[in-house]
Amino acid sequence: FVQLVPRKESSDDAYDRSIGIPKNEDDMTYFSSSNAVKTSRFVLLMKNLDTLENMFSDSYAVRLEDDILEQLQRLGAIHLFNSCLSTTLRSAETFDSSSHAPADVLRKIDSANCKVIVQSGKKELRKLRRKRAVDFEAGNLSLQFTSRDVRKNFRTPKTDSARAVARSRYKKQRITQSESDMAAGFKLVTELERIRKKVEDESGETPSFSRWAEAARIESKELKRRLNYGWHCRDQLLKSSRSLVVFIARNYWGLGIAFEDLIQAGNMAVLRGAERFDQSRGYKFSTYVQYWIRKSMSMLVANHSRGIRIPGTMNKVINQVQNARKQLCAATGRTPSDLEVAKLTGISLERIRSAGRCPRVVGSVDRRVGNPPGTLLMEVTADESICSPEEAAVREERARDVERMVRGLEWREREVLVLRFGLGRRDGEKKSLQEIGKILCVSKEWVRRIETTALAKLRRTQS
Q1: Lowest mean pLDDT among 251-265, 301-315, 434-448
Q2: What does the angle CA 342 – CA 346 – CA 348 come to, to the nearest 5 degrees?
Q3: Residue 106 C-alpha from the chain's centroid
Q4: Rounded distance, CA 108 to CA 113, Å?
Q5: Could you say which architecture CATH assigns to the domain 311-364?
Q6: Compositional bias (Basic and acidic residues) spans (predicted)?
Q7: How far apart are CA 345 and CA 342, in angstroms?
């Protein structure tokens, strides 16, 4: 009789039993069959979930497509959508998916574990490189290019140069003809405005529209049509010449005139050039109008860039002298003298010295000077208009002598000399021949003859 003593359960056995690890063969068989059933049920469940997801996604996509097509139908763009869709499908059919694919990415699905395995394809690329290297060393490498190399080295073919030149020439001719037509249309408005101005000067009041049309010898409807067309041509001329005006205005920027004023002067010059443009001479409008733009901007800078206005002729001399000095300084490396500038420009020395005194900066007489500054510049500046007592006495004696000499002339000759040379006047103001003619109600040629006769009598008296 053998007494069976129950074995105590160790801690390891308790842990194995708690997590479900079988101990004998029957338990192992039962455990494997149970796992197989669970795996098959899990796979079936995942397949059902995928099927349901595809069904719902397909139905949602169909509803979304129907809504999009309905909206396109309402907007009236369904035909455009169908044409674009057909073009896309045709291009997709000709597209080589195998050659244009990126790296050969392979996707494998493990049905048992439902895992997606992604292969980058780098291994195949390395094998291909090694094979090419071996073929290159052996000397039997054929020129084969991949689709990636073809796309990388692909360039859009250039258009035929002759066709491009012809197209550009035709475009320039069309622009030139358009500018000429617009200039001709603007001339119509200019002529109509001249007629209106003439009628206004004659009547002394602004003419009505019907009277304006009557003076132009056209109907009111035709006058309105011509005015609208001319104003349209004016606006188009200003728009087409905008870039040219801005380009020329940059050369006069920073000379004391605002850039907007330069642009405005250029626009006025464009209209002035359009009035005088003659298409029959064969020149382009843009080439012709450049002269008027530069002239208008130059006159604007000359008249308003300085505090004291300098005459246009003197301003031209100043520019010539400055350009000549720059040329001589660049050639010789030193500051040129007035004599060298006179030889280069052909201008007299006196004219060059006068031009050198004109561009001086104008200062304020209220500016304080000294160290420290406390005295006004006006207080230390001499008044050159006041002569010395000796000079005043000499001038009075000369005036009395001239007055005694003039007494022997006729009253008309005496009056002409007094007004012409300012004799007997405190301010010494001299008048021109035209001003004297207006005072005496005669022509300036008659005044010149009287002046010549009177001076000849005075010379004979002195001799």
Answers
A1: 301-315
A2: 60
A3: 55
A4: 12
A5: Orthogonal Bundle (1.10)
A6: 1-16
A7: 5
